[in-house]
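Shift notes (night). Ran Transmembrane 7 superfamily member 3 while the centrifuge was going.
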Amino acid sequence: FCNAGLLELSLGKFRNVLLNQTNPVEAVIRNIASNVTVIIFQVHAQQSDVVISFDKNPSVNSSGTGVDKGLVSILRPQQTICTWYLWSLDASQVLSTAISIPYMEKDPIPGGCNLEFDLEVDPNIYLDYTVVDIHIKFAPANLGYARGANPPPCDSGTGQNSRWRLHYDVYQYFLPENELSEMVLMSHIRKMSEVQSIKANGIKMLTLTADDKTNVYFSSLPGQGVIYNVIVWDPLWNTSAAYIPVHTYACSFADLVDNCSSLSKLSTKVFFTALAVLGLFTCFFGHRFWKTDLFFMGFIFTGFFFFVFITRVTGLGYDVRLILTAVAGTIGGLFLVASWWRFGSVLLCVFIIGLVLGFLFSSMVFFTPLGDYRVFRDDVVFWVTFSSVALMIPVLFVGCPRILNILASGIVGSYAVILAIACYVYTSLAYITLDLLRRVLNDYFSRAYTNVPFQRNDFIILSVWIMLALSGVTVQLRRERSEVPFPPHPYLTWKRERERRSTNVLDPSHHIPPLRDRIHNKLLHIKELFQKEQPAGERTPLLL
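Came back to this:
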């Protein structure tokens, strides 16, 4: 660590430094080699903004402010020393890490053709986030050049001798799940600062050419640390340079409620915990308790579409929408049970149940890297493909509805448990359905890349899901193999029994007294239990 006024740096070496508001730190690099033409100096902090400047008195076009900031120093002939100044905007000390990276004359210069931001040469990546998506943008790069030479013009042409030949590779890197400490960030951001380290550790998401806009969208993962960076590549010289890495947790450390440490609302925890209890019961006993299974699937089916509807057409708060969704889901579940009781259409009920399983299966398909294919950016292509995959499940099992119902109750019921776990412990498995909900609710979510981390917690919770689903399906298949496929139609059974009792005088149930008389007799029997026993008097005859 360094917290003195002077910070001696070596090219390519990280140094941790404590910054404060009152005493700027002077960062110095000496003995720069003559073949180095550009130095990119950068500093990173977790949540407090820091200032990086060429001068002690910063101006708009000579300094940058943020948690991940850097400056490009174009070296003059014979120059061997570079100096920058650092301080924080927070009154307390701020832990940061700094590094300077050298580049040669054939290496491209990140941000060298900046026309949008304040710095003349801006190597920074600018990041904004919402609860739905993350947006990064950066300035185009320029070709490298020797010390003392004039920079190549940015808009003189679009041929192979101009900056239009450059390509941009966008990389993503996930921090360990449930890790919000400063030291974890400092150790991992080093892996995303230099070209070779980025290629070795990051996930390459896409490649942009000079014809593409230099901005990209990703799905937001609140509470999960993510680092982004861009490598600009010159195909003519086969040289590369890295922009300034930028990180986000898609949440606020400062908020008292719903901060990075406690993201799930109480209403969300109550809702999904109750759903998990019902789902766990359905997982193991759904087919035996047919009406409970119908209620559970009807609740999910109705609740999902109702939540989408009220979110689209109203401006109600989240808690109110969740309560109304619970009410609507309950009504939908009871309606499905009542429909089966009255009309007895097993195939219709199983089709709806299969549709719920189909939607979950289709969401799982698009949860894989397949979902980030460019062809699915088109909403028409996406929804036609998604619906076709979802409908495939009930169509394939149309000849064996009992197996379809057992599979649906086991898989969907166990996934309800996973959603409840996600309210207390971060897991990427929750985004199987959450990304689908985001795409339905947000018109522009189709442009976002939906890659998520899959780390130790996810493997454990995935194992729990698989174990629950397999156990539930196996138990139900073994228990129900000698039973009738589905319960008899309850309304017809009740109607048939009523007709039998009214016509068959030999049936003992035909002679059952009316309901009013039976209630009256019961009340008399209860009354006799509380009556005091009367004395019986003399029990033997008198002797005369």
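The chain has two domains: 7-147+164-248, 266-480. The radius of gyration is 34 Å.
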